[in-house]
Amino acid sequence: MPSGRAELLKINLRELEIDPDVNLETIAEKIEGYSGADITNVCRDASMMAMRRRIEGLTPEQMRALSKSELQMPVTMMDFEQALKKISKSVSATDLEKYEKWMAEFGSS
């Protein structure tokens, strides 16, 4: 269900500025099967993409001269797309199948 994943995204992104082009429902669909930790990693990486974009081409001195507020760039849909290319889900469909079989046999009813 994408809405649960969208809620996880909102929790992970609550302290970040998000560009209006970001569609959390679309991202939620793309992260189907991702664990909570995987989703956190995608959000963290997307936020780092925004900062990397801000400091690209600057000298170390110029980077040090930036204030914290100047480093705060909104996270864009492209940042998420790049993060999703780098971070894949850590739980496979086979793992989930094994878990479901185990729960069916031994889980509480």
TrEMBL record:
Gene Ontology BP terms: microtubule severing
Keyword hit for Ribosomal protein: no
InterPro entries found in the cross-reference section: AAA_lid_3, MT-severing_AAA_ATPase, P-loop_NTPase, Spast_Vps4_C
Keyword terms: ATP-binding, Nucleotide-binding
Domain AAA ATPase AAA+ lid stretches: 21-62
Alphabetized Pfam families for the sequence: AAA_lid_3, Vps4_C
Record-level GO cellular component terms: microtubule cytoskeleton
Superkingdom field: Eukaryota
Positions of the Spastin/Vps4 C-terminal domain: 71-107
GO-annotated molecular function: ATP binding; ATP hydrolysis activity
Alphabetical list of PANTHER family matching this protein: AAA DOMAIN-CONTAINING, KATANIN P60 ATPASE-CONTAINING SUBUNIT A-LIKE 1
Family (UniProt): Belongs to the AAA ATPase family.
Protein name (Swiss-Prot/TrEMBL): Katanin p60 ATPase-containing subunit A-like 1, partial
Originating organism: Pelobates cultripes (Western spadefoot toad)
Organism classification: Eukaryota, Metazoa, Chordata, Craniata, Vertebrata
